[in-house]
Design a protein that fits this description.
Oligomer: single chain
Order of helices and strands: EHEHEHEHEHHEEEEEEHEEEEEH
Radius of gyration: 21 Å
CATH superfamily of the largest domain: Response regulator
CATH class of the largest domain: Alpha Beta
Helix content: 25-40%
CATH topology of the largest domain: Rossmann fold
Strand content: 25-35%
Number of domains: 2
Distance between the termini: 32 Å
Structural class: alpha/beta
Length: 244
């Protein structure tokens, strides 16, 4: 889960960053004005925005949010010391996932992030139970619950998938490992078409990481990791390689 923080008070910005990192989330950038925030939003593709309502410059946080959602729908958490009804009504038009008043605590921030991800889950037809046990699958990534945080796993980072009974184990290119309670056959059907191929009853690999195919020992090498290749899936793999 990647956050973009837009806050022009350095002390509050530092606290946001510290709390977010303590919770295990990645901070894409910290901006103190709308112009820089729009640039970072476009280039870094954050999953959630933490926006102060009062920003230096001509565009405040609410106006910035209006511009952002026209580019891409993304969960927004407003943070402000302004308690007047007019500010709240303006912010409500954006339909943020939370409106936090300063001073705030880590629990408020944690709950706001959880609400943001639950909102994403509902938007794509997932239940809260799905989020807890199966994770959340979007068009280009998973959000996997790891203890008390949600970790984003991009499809492009998946090295291979391994069946483990009713679970599938996701092995990533940076040597991380995640368990999702979805059978491998179901998970394979939901992955981007043309990027993954089965090499064994219990293994699905990403073609872009394939380094070599050992037909004598029936193994596939993926970024220095060996994965078994069975006779039943050998021809299918070789056909796919001919197409690449």
């Amino acid at each position: 889960m990647t956050l973009l923080i837009v806050e022009d008070e350095p002390l509050h910005a530092d606290r946001f960053e510290m709390l977010a990192r303590q919770m295990g989330y990645e901070v894409a950038a910290i901006c103190d004005n709308a112009f820089d925030a729009l640039s970072c939003f476009s280039s870094m593709q954050p999953d959630l925005l933490l926006l102060d309502v009062q920003l230096r410059g001509e565009i405040d946080g609410i106006q910035l949010a209006e511009k952002v959602v026209r580019i891409r729908q993304v969960p927004i958490v407003f943070v402000t010391s302004m308690r007047d009804d007019q500010t709240f009504e303006r912010a409500r038009q954006i339909q943020p996932v939370a409106f936090i008043l300063k001073p705030f605590d880590s629990l408020q921030l944690q709950r706001a992030i959880e609400l943001a991800v639950e909102g994403l889950a509902k938007a794509v037809g997932h239940s809260e139970s799905d989020l807890e046990h199966k994770g959340l699958m979007l068009t280009d990534c998973f959000f996997v619950k790891v203890r008390e945080k949600l970790e984003k796993v991009s499809f492009s980072d998946i090295l291979y998938l391994e069946s483990d009974g009713h679970y599938s184990m996701l092995h990533t290119s940076n040597q991380r490992k995640y368990a999702i309670r979805i059978p491998l056959s179901e998970l394979e059907s939901r992955l981007p078409e043309g990027h993954f191929v089965r090499t064994h009853r219990s293994y699905v690999v990403q073609l872009s990481y394939l380094q070599s195919v050992d037909l004598q020992n029936m193994m596939v090498l993926l970024k220095d990791k060996s994965v078994p290749l069975s006779k039943g899936y050998r021809d299918g793999l070789l056909e796919r390689l001919d197409m690449v």
